[in-house]
Amino acid sequence: MNFVPSHIPFEASVSQKTRRAPINAPTFGILAFLLEFFVVVALALTTAILYHLAAYGGAGNAAFFLHVGVLAALVYTLTNTVRRDYRLGNFLDGKVPTRRILIHWHGTILCLLAIGFLAQTSIIYSRAWMALFYVSGLLTLVPLRRLLTRVTLYASRTGIVSAKKIFIVGAEQRITEFLERYRPSQLGVEVAGCCFLPLLPGPLSGDSSRLLTRELDYALIQARETHPDAVVLLAPWTATDAVKQTVEKFGVLPAELHLGPDRMLEEFTNAELLRLGPISMLQLAAAPMGTLQWLTKRLMDIVIAGVALVALAPLFAVVACLIKLDGRGPVFFRQRRYGYNQRTFWIAKFRSMRVMEDGPELQQATRDDERVTTLGRFLRHWNIDELPQLVNVLKGDMSLVGPRPHALSHNLEYEKKIALYARRHNVKPGITGWAQVHGFRGETDANHMRKRVEYDLYYIEHWSLWLDIQILVRTVISPKSYRNAY
Protein backbone atom coordinates (compact mmCIF):
# COMPACT_ATOMS: atom_id res chain seq x y z
CA MET A 1 0.00 0.00 0.00
CA ASN A 2 1.44 3.33 -1.05
CA PHE A 3 0.33 6.79 -0.11
CA VAL A 4 -1.00 8.55 -3.21
CA PRO A 5 0.11 6.08 -5.91
CA SER A 6 1.30 7.59 -9.16
CA HIS A 7 -1.54 6.21 -11.26
CA ILE A 8 -4.24 8.00 -9.22
CA PRO A 9 -5.60 11.10 -11.06
CA PHE A 10 -3.77 14.33 -10.34
CA GLU A 11 -6.46 15.83 -8.14
CA ALA A 12 -6.02 12.93 -5.70
CA SER A 13 -2.29 13.43 -5.43
CA VAL A 14 -2.44 16.72 -3.58
CA SER A 15 -0.07 16.71 -0.63
CA GLN A 16 -0.40 18.49 2.67
CA LYS A 17 1.73 21.30 1.23
CA THR A 18 -1.08 22.34 -1.11
CA ARG A 19 -2.20 25.88 -0.38
CA ARG A 20 -5.69 26.05 1.06
CA ALA A 21 -8.35 27.95 -0.88
CA PRO A 22 -8.69 31.55 0.32
CA ILE A 23 -12.44 31.09 1.02
CA ASN A 24 -13.56 28.09 3.04
CA ALA A 25 -17.10 26.95 3.84
CA PRO A 26 -17.67 29.04 7.03
CA THR A 27 -16.27 32.18 5.38
CA PHE A 28 -18.46 31.62 2.35
CA GLY A 29 -21.57 31.30 4.53
CA ILE A 30 -20.81 34.63 6.19
CA LEU A 31 -20.22 36.34 2.84
CA ALA A 32 -23.45 34.95 1.36
CA PHE A 33 -25.35 36.10 4.47
CA LEU A 34 -23.89 39.60 4.27
CA LEU A 35 -24.53 39.88 0.52
CA GLU A 36 -28.24 39.11 0.80
CA PHE A 37 -28.52 41.21 3.96
CA PHE A 38 -27.15 44.34 2.26
CA VAL A 39 -29.15 43.69 -0.92
CA VAL A 40 -32.43 43.65 1.06
CA VAL A 41 -31.41 46.84 2.90
CA ALA A 42 -30.48 48.47 -0.43
CA LEU A 43 -33.84 47.46 -1.93
CA ALA A 44 -35.73 49.02 0.96
CA LEU A 45 -33.77 52.26 0.84
CA THR A 46 -33.69 52.57 -2.96
CA THR A 47 -37.40 51.87 -3.48
CA ALA A 48 -38.32 54.31 -0.69
CA ILE A 49 -36.21 57.12 -2.14
CA LEU A 50 -37.43 56.52 -5.70
CA TYR A 51 -41.06 56.41 -4.57
CA HIS A 52 -40.83 59.61 -2.52
CA LEU A 53 -38.99 61.42 -5.31
CA ALA A 54 -41.69 60.42 -7.80
CA ALA A 55 -44.65 61.06 -5.47
CA TYR A 56 -43.50 64.00 -3.34
CA GLY A 57 -40.43 65.43 -5.02
CA GLY A 58 -38.17 64.66 -2.04
CA ALA A 59 -36.23 61.72 -0.60
CA GLY A 60 -38.49 61.44 2.48
CA ASN A 61 -37.39 60.05 5.82
CA ALA A 62 -34.55 57.90 4.52
CA ALA A 63 -33.35 57.00 8.02
CA PHE A 64 -36.72 55.44 8.90
CA PHE A 65 -36.76 53.29 5.78
CA LEU A 66 -33.15 52.31 6.40
CA HIS A 67 -34.23 50.97 9.79
CA VAL A 68 -37.13 49.12 8.16
CA GLY A 69 -34.74 47.66 5.57
CA VAL A 70 -32.37 46.44 8.29
CA LEU A 71 -35.29 44.80 10.10
CA ALA A 72 -36.50 43.12 6.89
CA ALA A 73 -32.97 41.97 6.06
CA LEU A 74 -32.55 40.47 9.54
CA VAL A 75 -35.83 38.54 9.28
CA TYR A 76 -35.02 37.26 5.78
CA THR A 77 -31.37 36.30 6.31
CA LEU A 78 -31.86 34.83 9.77
CA THR A 79 -34.69 32.67 8.40
CA ASN A 80 -32.30 31.43 5.70
CA THR A 81 -29.62 30.86 8.32
CA VAL A 82 -31.93 28.74 10.46
CA ARG A 83 -32.77 26.69 7.37
CA ARG A 84 -29.00 26.40 6.69
CA ASP A 85 -29.47 27.91 3.23
CA TYR A 86 -26.05 29.57 3.26
CA ARG A 87 -24.09 26.32 3.43
CA LEU A 88 -21.56 26.12 0.64
CA GLY A 89 -22.83 22.72 -0.46
CA ASN A 90 -26.22 24.21 -1.33
CA PHE A 91 -24.54 26.42 -3.94
CA LEU A 92 -22.23 23.75 -5.34
CA ASP A 93 -25.08 21.47 -6.46
CA GLY A 94 -26.11 24.15 -8.98
CA LYS A 95 -29.77 24.20 -7.89
CA VAL A 96 -31.59 27.41 -6.99
CA PRO A 97 -34.34 26.87 -4.34
CA THR A 98 -36.77 29.29 -5.99
CA ARG A 99 -39.82 28.16 -4.06
CA ARG A 100 -38.08 28.40 -0.68
CA ILE A 101 -36.70 31.86 -1.47
CA LEU A 102 -40.16 33.14 -2.40
CA ILE A 103 -41.73 31.59 0.72
CA HIS A 104 -39.09 33.25 2.93
CA TRP A 105 -39.64 36.60 1.22
CA HIS A 106 -43.41 36.43 1.66
CA GLY A 107 -42.84 35.51 5.32
CA THR A 108 -40.50 38.48 5.70
CA ILE A 109 -43.09 40.93 4.39
CA LEU A 110 -45.79 39.47 6.64
CA CYS A 111 -43.48 39.73 9.67
CA LEU A 112 -42.67 43.32 8.73
CA LEU A 113 -46.35 44.23 8.58
CA ALA A 114 -47.06 42.43 11.85
CA ILE A 115 -44.19 44.21 13.64
CA GLY A 116 -45.33 47.55 12.25
CA PHE A 117 -48.88 46.91 13.47
CA LEU A 118 -47.80 45.87 16.97
CA ALA A 119 -45.37 48.80 17.25
CA GLN A 120 -48.03 51.17 15.89
CA THR A 121 -45.67 52.38 13.19
CA SER A 122 -47.47 50.84 10.21
CA ILE A 123 -49.29 54.12 9.61
CA ILE A 124 -45.93 55.59 8.57
CA TYR A 125 -45.54 52.89 5.92
CA SER A 126 -46.66 53.95 2.49
CA ARG A 127 -48.74 51.15 0.98
CA ALA A 128 -47.36 52.01 -2.45
CA TRP A 129 -43.80 51.82 -1.13
CA MET A 130 -44.48 48.51 0.62
CA ALA A 131 -45.87 47.06 -2.60
CA LEU A 132 -42.85 48.37 -4.52
CA PHE A 133 -40.47 46.91 -1.93
CA TYR A 134 -42.31 43.56 -2.06
CA VAL A 135 -42.21 43.36 -5.87
CA SER A 136 -38.56 44.43 -6.05
CA GLY A 137 -37.68 41.57 -3.69
CA LEU A 138 -39.60 39.09 -5.84
CA LEU A 139 -37.73 40.28 -8.92
CA THR A 140 -34.29 40.49 -7.30
CA LEU A 141 -33.72 37.73 -4.75
CA VAL A 142 -34.11 34.70 -7.03
CA PRO A 143 -31.83 36.10 -9.81
CA LEU A 144 -29.37 37.15 -7.09
CA ARG A 145 -29.22 33.60 -5.72
CA ARG A 146 -28.89 32.22 -9.25
CA LEU A 147 -25.98 34.60 -9.94
CA LEU A 148 -24.33 33.73 -6.63
CA THR A 149 -24.67 30.02 -7.42
CA ARG A 150 -22.97 30.45 -10.79
CA VAL A 151 -20.17 32.55 -9.31
CA THR A 152 -19.67 29.96 -6.57
CA LEU A 153 -19.43 27.12 -9.08
CA TYR A 154 -16.84 29.07 -11.06
CA ALA A 155 -14.90 29.92 -7.89
CA SER A 156 -14.85 26.28 -6.82
CA ARG A 157 -13.43 25.19 -10.19
CA THR A 158 -10.67 27.82 -10.03
CA GLY A 159 -9.70 27.05 -6.44
CA ILE A 160 -11.01 30.28 -4.90
CA VAL A 161 -13.60 28.44 -2.83
CA SER A 162 -13.10 25.12 -1.06
CA ALA A 163 -15.92 23.33 0.71
CA LYS A 164 -13.77 20.74 2.47
CA LYS A 165 -10.34 19.22 2.59
CA ILE A 166 -10.77 15.45 2.53
CA PHE A 167 -8.63 12.35 2.91
CA ILE A 168 -9.90 9.25 1.09
CA VAL A 169 -9.43 5.66 2.21
CA GLY A 170 -10.82 2.58 0.53
CA ALA A 171 -10.38 -0.02 -2.17
CA GLU A 172 -8.19 1.09 -5.08
CA GLN A 173 -10.81 0.60 -7.77
CA ARG A 174 -13.47 2.47 -5.80
CA ILE A 175 -11.18 5.44 -5.18
CA THR A 176 -10.27 5.64 -8.87
CA GLU A 177 -13.94 5.40 -9.94
CA PHE A 178 -14.96 7.99 -7.33
CA LEU A 179 -12.39 10.52 -8.56
CA GLU A 180 -13.22 9.98 -12.22
CA ARG A 181 -16.99 10.11 -11.71
CA TYR A 182 -17.37 13.00 -9.27
CA ARG A 183 -14.22 15.09 -9.90
CA PRO A 184 -14.17 16.55 -6.36
CA SER A 185 -12.04 19.56 -7.29
CA GLN A 186 -14.87 20.86 -9.49
CA LEU A 187 -17.20 20.68 -6.49
CA GLY A 188 -14.97 22.80 -4.30
CA VAL A 189 -13.49 19.78 -2.52
CA GLU A 190 -9.74 19.56 -1.98
CA VAL A 191 -8.44 15.97 -1.96
CA ALA A 192 -5.46 16.02 0.42
CA GLY A 193 -4.50 12.40 -0.19
CA CYS A 194 -5.68 8.80 -0.27
CA CYS A 195 -4.71 5.32 0.95
CA PHE A 196 -5.73 1.94 -0.40
CA LEU A 197 -7.21 -0.50 2.12
CA PRO A 198 -8.19 -4.19 1.82
CA LEU A 199 -11.87 -3.67 2.64
CA LEU A 200 -13.61 -7.01 2.12
CA PRO A 201 -17.40 -7.50 2.21
CA GLY A 202 -18.99 -9.56 4.93
CA PRO A 203 -17.47 -10.67 8.25
CA LEU A 204 -13.66 -10.59 8.57
CA SER A 205 -11.53 -13.53 9.64
CA GLY A 206 -8.85 -13.09 12.30
CA ASP A 207 -6.03 -12.77 9.72
CA SER A 208 -8.02 -10.31 7.60
CA SER A 209 -8.82 -8.19 10.63
CA ARG A 210 -5.16 -8.07 11.74
CA LEU A 211 -4.06 -7.15 8.20
CA LEU A 212 -6.62 -4.36 8.04
CA THR A 213 -5.49 -3.06 11.44
CA ARG A 214 -1.88 -2.72 10.21
CA GLU A 215 -3.01 -0.94 7.07
CA LEU A 216 -5.27 1.39 9.09
CA ASP A 217 -2.37 2.32 11.37
CA TYR A 218 -0.37 3.43 8.36
CA ALA A 219 -3.34 5.27 6.81
CA LEU A 220 -4.00 7.10 10.08
CA ILE A 221 -0.41 8.41 10.16
CA GLN A 222 -0.76 9.74 6.61
CA ALA A 223 -4.15 11.29 7.36
CA ARG A 224 -2.84 13.14 10.43
CA GLU A 225 -0.16 14.82 8.32
CA THR A 226 -2.75 16.26 5.88
CA HIS A 227 -5.04 17.80 8.56
CA PRO A 228 -8.27 16.99 6.68
CA ASP A 229 -11.71 18.38 7.46
CA ALA A 230 -13.21 14.99 6.69
CA VAL A 231 -12.19 11.38 6.04
CA VAL A 232 -14.18 9.66 3.28
CA LEU A 233 -14.39 5.87 3.39
CA LEU A 234 -15.08 4.23 0.04
CA ALA A 235 -16.15 0.64 0.69
CA PRO A 236 -19.03 -1.68 -0.15
CA TRP A 237 -21.86 -1.10 2.29
CA THR A 238 -21.88 -4.85 2.86
CA ALA A 239 -18.35 -4.66 4.35
CA THR A 240 -19.81 -4.00 7.80
CA ASP A 241 -16.88 -5.37 9.82
CA ALA A 242 -14.30 -3.46 7.78
CA VAL A 243 -16.34 -0.24 7.93
CA LYS A 244 -16.78 -0.53 11.70
CA GLN A 245 -13.07 -1.18 12.23
CA THR A 246 -12.12 1.78 10.01
CA VAL A 247 -14.51 4.14 11.76
CA GLU A 248 -13.14 3.12 15.17
CA LYS A 249 -9.57 3.77 14.00
CA PHE A 250 -10.23 7.14 12.38
CA GLY A 251 -12.53 8.25 15.21
CA VAL A 252 -9.44 9.59 17.01
CA LEU A 253 -8.97 12.26 14.32
CA PRO A 254 -10.59 15.70 14.85
CA ALA A 255 -12.39 15.34 11.51
CA GLU A 256 -15.74 14.28 10.09
CA LEU A 257 -16.18 10.66 8.98
CA HIS A 258 -18.18 9.92 5.83
CA LEU A 259 -19.15 6.62 4.24
CA GLY A 260 -18.96 7.25 0.49
CA PRO A 261 -21.74 6.42 -1.97
CA ASP A 262 -22.42 2.80 -2.79
CA ARG A 263 -22.81 1.83 -6.44
CA MET A 264 -26.47 1.13 -5.84
CA LEU A 265 -27.07 4.85 -5.23
CA GLU A 266 -26.00 5.71 -8.77
CA GLU A 267 -29.46 4.53 -9.86
CA PHE A 268 -31.15 6.89 -7.39
CA THR A 269 -29.91 10.45 -7.82
CA ASN A 270 -32.19 11.88 -5.10
CA ALA A 271 -31.48 9.31 -2.39
CA GLU A 272 -31.49 10.82 1.10
CA LEU A 273 -30.91 9.48 4.62
CA LEU A 274 -33.93 10.11 6.85
CA ARG A 275 -34.66 9.48 10.50
CA LEU A 276 -38.06 8.61 11.94
CA GLY A 277 -37.41 8.68 15.66
CA PRO A 278 -34.85 5.93 16.31
CA ILE A 279 -35.27 4.49 12.79
CA SER A 280 -32.72 5.43 10.11
CA MET A 281 -33.81 4.82 6.53
CA LEU A 282 -32.41 5.52 3.08
CA GLN A 283 -35.07 7.27 1.05
CA LEU A 284 -34.51 6.28 -2.58
CA ALA A 285 -37.29 8.41 -4.06
CA ALA A 286 -39.34 11.23 -2.55
CA ALA A 287 -42.99 12.06 -3.12
CA PRO A 288 -43.22 14.46 -6.09
CA MET A 289 -45.02 17.21 -4.15
CA GLY A 290 -45.83 18.15 -0.59
CA THR A 291 -49.25 19.38 0.55
CA LEU A 292 -48.36 23.07 0.17
CA GLN A 293 -46.90 22.51 -3.29
CA TRP A 294 -49.97 20.55 -4.37
CA LEU A 295 -52.32 23.27 -3.14
CA THR A 296 -50.29 25.99 -4.86
CA LYS A 297 -50.30 24.15 -8.17
CA ARG A 298 -54.01 23.33 -7.90
CA LEU A 299 -54.89 26.95 -7.14
CA MET A 300 -52.93 28.12 -10.19
CA ASP A 301 -54.70 25.50 -12.33
CA ILE A 302 -58.16 26.60 -11.22
CA VAL A 303 -57.51 30.32 -11.63
CA ILE A 304 -55.79 30.17 -15.03
CA ALA A 305 -58.09 27.48 -16.49
CA GLY A 306 -61.21 29.34 -15.32
CA VAL A 307 -60.05 32.68 -16.74
CA ALA A 308 -58.90 31.03 -19.98
CA LEU A 309 -62.26 29.30 -20.53
CA VAL A 310 -64.12 32.57 -20.14
CA ALA A 311 -61.69 34.49 -22.36
CA LEU A 312 -61.61 31.80 -25.05
CA ALA A 313 -65.38 31.18 -25.16
CA PRO A 314 -65.77 33.09 -28.47
CA LEU A 315 -62.93 31.06 -30.02
CA PHE A 316 -64.57 27.82 -28.83
CA ALA A 317 -67.82 28.86 -30.55
CA VAL A 318 -66.05 29.69 -33.83
CA VAL A 319 -64.05 26.44 -33.83
CA ALA A 320 -67.18 24.39 -33.07
CA CYS A 321 -69.00 25.97 -36.03
CA LEU A 322 -66.04 25.38 -38.36
CA ILE A 323 -65.80 21.70 -37.33
CA LYS A 324 -69.50 21.23 -38.09
CA LEU A 325 -69.11 22.93 -41.48
CA ASP A 326 -65.97 20.87 -42.25
CA GLY A 327 -67.78 17.54 -42.22
CA ARG A 328 -69.92 15.10 -40.34
CA GLY A 329 -69.14 14.12 -36.79
CA PRO A 330 -69.20 15.56 -33.29
CA VAL A 331 -67.38 18.75 -32.28
CA PHE A 332 -65.45 17.08 -29.46
CA PHE A 333 -63.36 13.92 -29.41
CA ARG A 334 -63.14 11.93 -26.17
CA GLN A 335 -60.66 9.21 -25.37
CA ARG A 336 -59.60 7.33 -22.24
CA ARG A 337 -56.17 8.19 -20.83
CA TYR A 338 -54.18 7.34 -17.73
CA GLY A 339 -53.95 10.12 -15.16
CA TYR A 340 -52.54 10.52 -11.66
CA ASN A 341 -51.68 7.17 -10.05
CA GLN A 342 -52.73 5.46 -13.32
CA ARG A 343 -56.42 6.25 -12.87
CA THR A 344 -58.28 6.44 -16.17
CA PHE A 345 -60.22 9.52 -17.24
CA TRP A 346 -61.85 10.84 -20.42
CA ILE A 347 -59.76 13.48 -22.14
CA ALA A 348 -61.50 16.09 -24.34
CA LYS A 349 -60.24 17.59 -27.59
CA PHE A 350 -61.68 19.38 -30.57
CA ARG A 351 -62.22 16.71 -33.21
CA SER A 352 -59.45 16.95 -35.79
CA MET A 353 -59.72 13.53 -37.50
CA ARG A 354 -62.38 11.62 -39.38
CA VAL A 355 -62.14 8.68 -36.94
CA MET A 356 -63.00 8.40 -33.24
CA GLU A 357 -60.68 5.59 -32.10
CA ASP A 358 -60.46 4.37 -28.53
CA GLY A 359 -59.50 0.77 -27.92
CA PRO A 360 -56.68 -1.76 -27.46
CA GLU A 361 -55.14 -0.96 -30.87
CA LEU A 362 -54.71 2.64 -31.98
CA GLN A 363 -52.75 4.11 -34.86
CA GLN A 364 -51.08 7.40 -34.03
CA ALA A 365 -51.35 10.36 -36.33
CA THR A 366 -48.40 10.61 -38.72
CA ARG A 367 -47.15 13.29 -41.09
CA ASP A 368 -49.66 13.83 -43.94
CA ASP A 369 -52.08 11.41 -42.25
CA GLU A 370 -55.18 11.08 -44.46
CA ARG A 371 -57.40 10.70 -41.39
CA VAL A 372 -56.71 14.30 -40.33
CA THR A 373 -59.21 16.82 -41.69
CA THR A 374 -58.13 20.01 -43.41
CA LEU A 375 -59.32 22.10 -40.47
CA GLY A 376 -57.89 19.54 -38.05
CA ARG A 377 -54.41 20.00 -39.49
CA PHE A 378 -54.58 23.70 -38.65
CA LEU A 379 -56.00 23.06 -35.17
CA ARG A 380 -53.31 20.49 -34.36
CA HIS A 381 -50.46 22.65 -35.61
CA TRP A 382 -51.42 25.56 -33.36
CA ASN A 383 -52.43 23.33 -30.41
CA ILE A 384 -56.00 24.65 -30.58
CA ASP A 385 -57.41 21.11 -30.52
CA GLU A 386 -56.05 20.72 -26.93
CA LEU A 387 -57.95 23.71 -25.49
CA PRO A 388 -61.05 21.74 -24.31
CA GLN A 389 -58.73 20.03 -21.82
CA LEU A 390 -59.09 23.20 -19.74
CA VAL A 391 -62.34 21.54 -18.60
CA ASN A 392 -60.31 18.47 -17.56
CA VAL A 393 -58.10 20.80 -15.55
CA LEU A 394 -61.06 22.34 -13.71
CA LYS A 395 -62.45 18.86 -12.99
CA GLY A 396 -59.10 17.85 -11.47
CA ASP A 397 -58.27 15.11 -13.98
CA MET A 398 -55.38 17.13 -15.41
CA SER A 399 -53.11 20.06 -14.64
CA LEU A 400 -52.06 22.89 -16.92
CA VAL A 401 -48.47 21.56 -16.85
CA GLY A 402 -47.35 17.96 -16.53
CA PRO A 403 -46.41 14.90 -18.58
CA ARG A 404 -48.70 14.54 -21.57
CA PRO A 405 -51.13 11.60 -21.19
CA HIS A 406 -51.06 8.91 -23.86
CA ALA A 407 -53.74 6.54 -25.09
CA LEU A 408 -54.15 3.44 -22.91
CA SER A 409 -52.75 1.03 -25.50
CA HIS A 410 -49.64 3.15 -26.07
CA ASN A 411 -49.19 3.56 -22.34
CA LEU A 412 -49.17 -0.19 -21.74
CA GLU A 413 -46.76 -0.71 -24.63
CA TYR A 414 -44.15 1.77 -23.43
CA GLU A 415 -44.31 0.66 -19.81
CA LYS A 416 -42.80 -2.61 -21.00
CA LYS A 417 -40.09 -0.96 -23.11
CA ILE A 418 -38.92 2.03 -21.06
CA ALA A 419 -37.67 1.86 -17.47
CA LEU A 420 -39.36 4.27 -15.03
CA TYR A 421 -42.00 5.15 -17.64
CA ALA A 422 -44.76 4.62 -15.07
CA ARG A 423 -43.25 7.33 -12.80
CA ARG A 424 -44.84 9.84 -15.18
CA HIS A 425 -48.11 9.09 -13.40
CA ASN A 426 -46.80 10.32 -10.03
CA VAL A 427 -48.22 13.74 -10.93
CA LYS A 428 -51.29 14.79 -12.87
CA PRO A 429 -50.90 14.83 -16.66
CA GLY A 430 -50.77 18.25 -18.29
CA ILE A 431 -52.05 20.10 -21.34
CA THR A 432 -48.43 21.02 -21.96
CA GLY A 433 -45.16 19.90 -20.41
CA TRP A 434 -41.38 20.17 -20.18
CA ALA A 435 -40.96 17.65 -23.01
CA GLN A 436 -43.38 19.47 -25.30
CA VAL A 437 -41.64 22.86 -25.02
CA HIS A 438 -38.42 21.09 -26.03
CA GLY A 439 -40.03 19.80 -29.23
CA PHE A 440 -40.82 16.24 -28.11
CA ARG A 441 -44.35 15.74 -29.31
CA GLY A 442 -46.10 14.00 -32.19
CA GLU A 443 -45.27 10.38 -33.00
CA THR A 444 -43.94 8.32 -30.11
CA ASP A 445 -41.38 5.90 -31.54
CA ALA A 446 -39.16 4.20 -28.94
CA ASN A 447 -36.18 6.61 -29.13
CA HIS A 448 -38.40 9.67 -29.24
CA MET A 449 -40.40 8.41 -26.26
CA ARG A 450 -37.27 7.73 -24.18
CA LYS A 451 -36.23 11.37 -24.55
CA ARG A 452 -39.76 12.49 -23.72
CA VAL A 453 -39.72 10.36 -20.55
CA GLU A 454 -36.35 11.85 -19.54
CA TYR A 455 -37.81 15.37 -19.74
CA ASP A 456 -40.98 14.32 -17.92
CA LEU A 457 -39.00 12.77 -15.05
CA TYR A 458 -36.82 15.88 -14.85
CA TYR A 459 -39.97 17.97 -14.49
CA ILE A 460 -41.32 15.74 -11.71
CA GLU A 461 -38.04 15.83 -9.76
CA HIS A 462 -37.49 19.60 -10.19
CA TRP A 463 -41.04 20.94 -10.01
CA SER A 464 -41.54 24.53 -8.92
CA LEU A 465 -44.18 27.15 -9.54
CA TRP A 466 -41.61 29.15 -11.47
CA LEU A 467 -40.92 26.16 -13.74
CA ASP A 468 -44.65 25.83 -14.47
CA ILE A 469 -44.84 29.50 -15.40
CA GLN A 470 -41.83 29.15 -17.71
CA ILE A 471 -43.42 26.17 -19.45
CA LEU A 472 -46.74 27.98 -19.94
CA VAL A 473 -45.00 31.00 -21.46
CA ARG A 474 -42.78 28.87 -23.69
CA THR A 475 -45.80 26.86 -24.84
CA VAL A 476 -47.22 30.03 -26.35
CA ILE A 477 -44.10 31.77 -27.69
CA SER A 478 -41.50 29.07 -28.36
CA PRO A 479 -41.32 27.63 -31.91
CA LYS A 480 -40.34 24.24 -30.43
CA SER A 481 -43.81 23.92 -28.94
CA TYR A 482 -45.30 23.73 -32.44
CA ARG A 483 -42.87 21.18 -33.91
CA ASN A 484 -44.02 17.71 -35.00
CA ALA A 485 -47.69 18.68 -34.62
CA TYR A 486 -49.57 16.82 -37.28
Structural class label: alpha/beta
The unreliable regions are 1-19
Helical residue percent?
40-55%
Shape: flat
Please tally the helical runs, counting DSSP H or I stretches of 4 or more residues.
15
Provide a descriptive summary of the structure in words.
There is one protein chain. The chain has 3 domains: 10-21 and 161-283, Rossmann fold (3-Layer(aba) Sandwich), CATH 3.40.50; 23-157, no CATH class; 291-482, no CATH class. Helix content is 50%, strand content 12%. The chain is built from 15 helices and 12 strands. The protein has helices spanning 25-56, 62-82, 88-92, 98-118, 127-157, 172-182, 206-226, 240-250, 291-311, 313-326, 374-381, 389-395, 408-417, 446-461, 465-477; strands at residues 23-24, 161-162, 164-170, 189-196, 230-234, 256-259, 272-276, 279-283, 332-338, 344-350, 399-401, 430-432. A 4-stranded parallel sheet has the order 4-3-5-6. Helix 1 (25-56) packs antiparallel against helix 2 (62-82) and helix 1 runs antiparallel to helix 5 (127-157). The relative contact order is 0.07.
